[in-house]
Amino acid sequence: MKGIISLKDLSIHSKKVLMRVDFNVCQDEKGQITDDTRIKAALPSIRWVLEHGGALILMSHLGRPKEKLPKFSLSPVAERLSALLGKKVVLASDCGGEDSLRLSKVLKPGEVLLLENLRFNPAEEKPEKDPSFAKSLANLGDVYVDDAFGAAHRAHSSITEVPKYFGAQKGAGLLLAKEVEWLEKTLTNPGRPFLALVGGAKISSKLGVLKALSEKADEVLIGGAMAFTLLKARGFSVGDSLVEEDTALPTSKNLILPLDFVCEKGGEIKIFSHEIPAGWKGMDIGPTTLKLFDEKIAKAKTVLWNGPMGVFEDPRFAAGTREVAQAIVRSGAVSIVGGGDSIFAIQQAGLEDKFTHVSTGGGATLEYIEYGKLPGIEALRQQD
Ligand code: ADP
Ligand code: MG
User: Fold this and answer.
1) In DSSP terms, which residues pair with 273 in a beta bridge?
2) 268, exposed or middle or buried, with CB in 10 Å at 0-12, 13-18, 19+?
3) Which atom of ligand 1 is nearest to the CA of 223?
4) What distance in angstroms lies between residue 340's CA and the mean position of ligand 2's atoms?
5) How close is the Cα of 362 to the center of ligand 2, in Å?
6) Ligand 1 within 6 A of 209 CB?
7) Residue 205 CA: which ligand 1 atom is closest?
8) 250 pLDDT tier (thresholds 50, 70, 90)
9) Through-space distance between the first and last CA atoms of the chain, rounded to whole angstroms
């Protein structure tokens, strides 16, 4: 990344390295971690610091706590990280407070300290509320590293304010750099044909991305519920399918809409083409669409995918998403997938290892595609 120092080029020996990671993992009702992908994704940077003689102070958010509740504690994360590293991980009881300061002072090279949930302090999400929060975090380390790609679209204290205190002693972690390099390469110089696949529920949240992708990709294949909003605007009947009214819709000619749908009405399932009768709800793309998408995907050299093709959580409507995933893998194209639900769907299909790059950040990926930059990345730039 131009103008940004890589973790590998920072001098970290005998230094305290303050690293922002994305440990916002999924948990069940009992607090058990159900998916530790994000912890594993940060391991290369973590190991790099420990193997190069740094003392590591990690910080992350978890969930959206309104107050300091035990269920939002990073304690299960500390345990899992410790198991993955095979080494002790000390958890501070606060985040930038007295306990953090005390523990960071005695931290030695090769040791790991994890601060408690950043969002226990309201100033994490609203830096203007209390600039001293960022300062107290910055105070803990000699070097700052951001490896939290999944949070790089947030202008939060630990992401955009803390690095201001580090001058040339700040840089990008290995995961962050890898994520950005893939996106940069795909968006600026993709192998063609370059296909984008966009699905999911809400078109309003993906309008900017659709527009950006329709300019960069040769074609954009649309699935998921957003297809109905587009079809309705073109005068087709969509029955009781999910639509969003009053959205300014993209008109790009290279948007390819589904030809048929798997629809449901009171437990009954039927395939309809564009004209879905009243009472029926489109839940997945249909077989004719799958055939069309498969043909296009087979010829593609690059595929960027965000958003499931149907309500994949229900096995009756999972085929579209699963088969599109299989088609991408079969095509041998360079394949990049982003989005929490999309990744969950390819994991369900057992295909996550078959994609070229599976992004750890849904929102961050989408914002990068739309704007070509992210607050978390800009905050790492060296002034010249
Ligand atoms: P991602 O997390 O990959 O970015 P989104 O959050 O945008 O994806 O969308 C995922 C959601 O879209 C899923 O919960 C899925 O059930 C829903 N969805 C997909 N197709 C439909 C549909 N036809 N009708 C209603 N919801 C849909
Ligand atoms: Mg989602």
Assistant:
1) 260
2) exposed
3) 20
4) 5
5) 8
6) no
7) 7
8) confident
9) 15
Q: What is the pTM of this model?
A: 0.87
For residue 232, CA distances in Å to 236, 242, 255, 257 come to 5, 10, 15, 12
Asked if residue 16 lies in contact with residue 54, where contact means CB atoms within 8 angstroms, the answer is yes
Q: Tell me the three state secondary structure of residue 135.
A: helix
Pairing of strands 16-20, 55-59: parallel
Residues 154-179 as b/e (b if ≥16 CB within 10 A, e otherwise) read bebbbbbbbbebbeebbbbbbbbbbb
Q: Which two tokens stand for residue 148?
A: 């939290």
* Nearest bound ligand to the CA of residue 202: 1
Judge if the beta carbon of residue 141 lies within 6 A of ligand 1. Answer: no
Q: Which residue has the higher pLDDT, 314 or 2?
A: 314
The answer to whether 83 touches 72, Cβ cutoff 8 Å, is: no
For residues 77 and 112, the answer to whether their CB atoms sit within 8 Å is no
pLDDT tier, 262 (very low <50, low <70, confident <90, very high otherwise): very high
Span 145-190, pLDDT tens digits: 999 999 999 999 999 999 999 999 999 999 999 999 999 988 889 9
CA distance 69 to 78: 17
The residue to which tokens 């040791």 are assigned: 111
pLDDT digits (tens, 9 = 90+) for 85-96: 999 999 999 999
- The phi, psi pair for 169, rounded to 5°, reads -95, 40
